[in-house]
Design brief:
By secondary structure, the chain is α/β, with parallel strands linked by helices. Helix content is 14%, strand content 13%. The mean pLDDT is 96.
Length: 238
């Protein structure tokens, strides 16, 4: 991106609080970004060439929406924890294998998208976030869902297209979880504990593409209780 084009984007962002620089071949923050530290609320740097997110990101304390989709990120700095007003975080299509614990400081997060990375475990630092509605972990390398996941406050948890073979029955204790997506994993029917069907608020359990026929789910104790919740929600939609 030429200097004139960047300058115009900066001028516009100073007025609107929104900066969109996708497909800009960026791998660092231009010095001009400093002019926006006090008022930037939305930053879209998707489809660039960032390998490491610059630590200067911590200066943008008014940020509510951060989009880093389709970069080459291998690491997120600890200082991202300073962005306590952040509500949406998109880190899809990167090369992340781990995440900083400081993400637990982002108490206003509502939506986190981490699909198509290389995470091997469910990131538990999100468990403390009371306002988090959606956590998308699809298309990673996760192999199990541990008991600690019960601390997640999400309404929707997307674990599609991982390598999950084991899921703790404690997922039933997630206080707000209604949609649990587990399509195209490595689950046997025996991995679906009856507690998940009987003792949870889950009303949309997506299990297509695992190591059993979906119709076999009807043989698991608690299936009728699950279907009551499922049907009740469908009725509300129509």
């Amino acid at each position: 991106m030429g200097n004139s084009g960047l300058k115009q984007h900066i001028v516009t962002a100073q007025k609107t609080g929104v900066l969109k620089l996708s497909q800009g071949h960026l791998n660092g923050f231009p010095p001009e970004f400093r002019q926006l530290e006090g008022n930037l609320r939305t930053l879209d740097l998707s489809d660039n060439k960032f390998v490491n997110l610059p630590t200067e990101i911590s200066r943008f304390l008014q940020l509510k929406h951060l989009n880093l989709n389709k970069n080459k990120l291998v690491k997120i700095p600890d200082c991202i924890g300073a962005l306590t007003k952040l509500e949406t975080l998109n880190l899809c299509h990167n090369n992340l294998t781990s995440l900083p614990r400081t993400l637990s400081n982002l108490i206003n997060l509502k939506q986190v998208y981490l699909c198509e990375n290389h995470l091997k475990e469910v990131p538990l630092m999100f468990c403390s976030l009371k306002h988090l509605d959606i956590l998308d972990l699809s298309k990673n390398d996760i192999t199990s869902v541990p008991a600690e996941v019960s601390g997640l406050n999400v309404v929707e948890l997307n674990l599609n297209q991982n390598q999950i073979a084991d899921i703790s029955p404690q997922v039933a204790n997630c206080p707000r979880l209604k949609t649990l997506r587990l399509e195209e994993n490595c689950l046997q029917l025996s991995a679906i504990h009856s507690k998940i069907l009987t003792d949870s608020k889950i009303c949309n359990l997506a299990l297509d593409g695992n190591l059993f026929e979906l119709k076999q789910l009807a043989d698991v104790p608690g299936y009728d209780a699950y279907m009551e919740r499922f049907t009740a929600v469908k009725k509300k939609l129509f």
